[in-house]
Specification:
Layout (H helix, E strand, L loop, with lengths): L1 E2 L6 H8 L8 E3 L6 H5 L6 E3 L6 H10 L5 E3 L5 E2 L2 H13 L6 E11 L2 E13 L5 E3 L5 E3 L4 E10 L8 H11 L6 H13 L3 H13 L5 H17 L3 H10 L8 H13 L3 H13 L10 E2 H4 L2 H12 L3 H15 L3 H14 L7
Helix pairs in contact: 6-7, 7-8, 8-9, 9-10, 10-11, 11-13, 13-14, 14-15
């Protein structure tokens, strides 16, 4: 792990993993709080490292101190659930020595207990392979060989962080005249979007797509992010075109269909909205997919939106059925319970219909 001023979350993270791993290595990049005191409750392998605006340098330093056959990395605001602790412990016992790297799910957002946004990250690597981290910010492990995709998940549970840190690193990189790789362009655009610099973000997303060196999933993500920028700038038609542009890279994704459907719903074009939300329910992820997954768009969200659409058309039975389809994923979520109650009352004539 690499850490800095993580006293709010570090104990929670280490508690969730300490009895599964064989050693804990923590590289501190300049904490001024109780981070090191908390870390030393779990390990003596706590090292200081001068921060040089380069996440890869810090992560590579942490890997240099590892001594076990395999290296697992976490961030301080990550947590391993009880279910996945069991999976990880069992996985560790049965891990074949011919595996070079292991990916795990990374759950980034939730609706109740259900993950809504996830991605796959390389989390475990064979130390003898000497894999290294690349990139100053939004760093990644450069790997090859026998890669195993596991069903183990790590949960991201942030409390607080320096929201401008990554943007500052990119701005410094620009000021120094350093070249931006296509990956840098994409993640810099993401930072600009997060900081509401929409026009500038649009320019960098377009520069990224124009390189022609885009991994398919990154290109599709860039299209969706472009759509967010245009929506924030009150340019709905441009937003729709950005989503449609994603179809050039692969078959339509459920998220794309939901985005287009929402645009039509806002315009009051219910039939068109129904078409796109219905299509979202039929979209399937490509085999061996490793990009960001919007679980909501692939499961309950289009059904909830179809519930809204059909209720606006006065087709309450169809609306009710789609609410129940959403309930298959969300259970007794308050939204589901409310919709069910109102729709039943409308169908039974107990409540005046809108």
């Amino acid at each position: 792990m690499i850490v800095k001023d993580e006293e709010a979350v570090l104990d929670r993270c280490l508690q969730s993993i300490a009895d599964i791993v064989d050693e804990i290595v923590i590289v501190d990049t300049g904490s001024q709080d109780r981070t090191q005191e908390i870390a030393r409750k779990y390990t003596d392998l706590v090292f200081d490292f001068e921060w040089v605006d380069d996440f890869s340098e810090a992560r590579n330093e942490s890997f240099r101190h590892a001594s076990m056959d395999y290296v697992l990395w976490l961030d301080a605001d990550d947590v391993v659930s009880d279910v996945d602790r069991i999976k990880l412990a069992e996985f560790k016992k049965n891990l074949s020595s011919d595996v070079d790297a292991v990916t795990m799910w990374y759950h980034l957002a939730f609706q109740g207990d259900q993950p809504t946004v996830s991605s796959r990250l390389v989390r475990l690597v064979k130390r003898s392979r000497g894999f290294v981290w690349r990139g100053r910010v939004h760093e990644y492990l450069e790997i090859n060989g026998n890669i195993l995709n596991s069903d183990i998940a790590i949960i991201h549970r942030p409390v607080e962080h320096d929201a401008a840190r990554n943007l500052r690193i990119y701005e410094k990189k620009l000021a120094l005249g350093e070249d931006f790789s296509p990956r840098d362009m994409l993640y810099y655009a993401n930072e600009l979007l997060d900081h509401a610099q929409y026009e500038k973000a649009v320019q960098w997303y377009k520069r990224f797509l124009a390189t022609g060196q885009c991994w398919k999933e990154d290109a599709i993500t860039a299209c969706f992010k472009l759509a967010e920028c245009f929506r924030a700038m009150n340019q709905p038609e441009q937003s729709k075109q950005a989503v449609l542009h994603s179809f050039l890279y692969d078959t339509p994704r459920a998220e794309a269909c939901c985005r287009i459907g929402y645009g039509y719903l806002e315009e009051g074009k219910i039939d068109q909205a129904i078409f796109w939300y219905d299509l979202a329910t039929k979209c399937r992820r490509p085999a061996n997919f490793v990009g960001f997954v919007n679980h909501a768009c692939e499961t309950w969200l289009p059904h909830i939106q179809l519930c809204v659409c059909y209720s606006r058309l006065g087709q309450y039975r169809k609306a009710y059925d789609h609410n129940e389809r959403a309930a298959e994923y969300l259970g007794e979520d308050p939204m589901i319970v409310h919709n069910r109650s109102v729709l039943r009352a409308w169908m039974d004539g107990e409540l005046e219909k809108p």
